[in-house]
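Structure tokens please, single chain.
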Amino acid sequence: MAFSFLMMVAIGLGIDALMVAISCGLKLGQRIWVTYLKIAGAFGLFQGGMTALGMGVGHLGYSFLKPYAHYIAMGIFVGLALKAWQEFYKQKKESHCVACLCQRPWCLLLLAVATSVDAFAVGIVLVCYDVAAGLAIGTIAVVAFLLSGGGLLLGQGLGRILGRWPSLVAMVIFMVLAAKALQGAA
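Here you go.
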């Protein structure tokens, strides 16, 4: 698998963490770097961890999944694109932005898990593409960390301007990945 494909996957997965981080950044009054590192670190850790967990499950069912890998990947990416479209459309109807501020570890844990569930499904698919586990997990975790950190900064300044558009970007990325997966099945 080409590294560019893996980067597209990582960016597509990291968009959820970016959006939540922007929301958190809207409420962070001061730039407290420890808080930034804690939030971005949790998102990166869980994106990588859920990818690893998905890859573990994928290895258990590898012989069954291999013949259907491209179709499974296409289905997952289309599902993620539809989810991103739904978020884009839902945000269009909402006239206000509800911001999140995680002061308690449980809140941060729930957000980190919620933004990384998609990474579990993608981890299963990555096994079928014979991706090196360390490279995939590391890339996804680092990209999520960087997007989250950037999202916190953006949330303080540009969050209200960006609005719902990152969800549309995620949808386009996942549709491109779905098309590439289907192309691989042909």
